[in-house]
């Protein structure tokens, strides 16, 4: 009899936990992680593997560029390197699009805008928020790039 009661109690507990888990909204970190994982796995499966390796290298260096030069300067540099033909350009384009799309989402700082257009048209408070948000986003991008993209750029 006590086993039967424990079994019922366990099922109720499991049912309560699962319903609580579905009712709990995702944290901002979870949203960033899910977004970044989707984007990084997309470039990891790119037909030009050199572009994926370059993406990994640029993802590692971009946070330092943002810290030293500011978000606007770093993204202007990234956008200047975008080219759909060369692996370097593909990698920069993917990185720029990833950041711009994140900031253009409802949770982002520049909803419905390109990130550079948003930087130009907004005030300094929003700019600082965007810079901090980009640094937080890049933590996930770097980690997933290291996990999903094997190898490094060949310097021949």
Automatic annotation (TrEMBL):
Residues 16-28 have a biased composition (Polar residues). The keyword Cytoplasm applies. Residues 1-28 are annotated as: Disordered. Keywords: Antiviral defense, Cytoplasm. It holds the Pfam family Cas_Cmr5. InterPro entries: AF1862-like_dom_sf, CRISPR-assoc_prot_Cmr5. Belongs to the CRISPR system Cmr5 family. This is CRISPR type III-B/RAMP module-associated protein Cmr5. It comes from Endozoicomonas euniceicola. The gene is cmr5.
């Amino acid at each position: 009899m006590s086993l039967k009661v424990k079994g019922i109690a366990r099922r109720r507990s499991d049912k309560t936990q699962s319903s609580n888990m579905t009712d709990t909204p995702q944290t901002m970190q979870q949203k960033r992680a899910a977004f970044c994982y989707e984007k990084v796995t997309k470039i990891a499966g790119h037909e030009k593997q050199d572009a994926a390796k370059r993406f990994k290298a640029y993802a590692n260096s971009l946070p330092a560029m943002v810290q030293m030069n500011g978000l606007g300067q770093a993204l202007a540099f990234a956008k200047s390197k975008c080219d759909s033909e060369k692996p370097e350009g593909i990698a920069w384009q993917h990185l720029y699009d990833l950041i711009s799309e994140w900031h253009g989402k409802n949770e982002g700082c520049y909803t419905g805008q390109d990130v550079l257009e948003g930087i130009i048209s907004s005030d300094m408070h929003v700019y600082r928020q965007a810079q901090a948000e980009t640094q937080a986003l890049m933590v996930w991008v770097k980690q997933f790039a290291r996990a999903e993209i094997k190898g490094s750029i060949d310097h021949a």
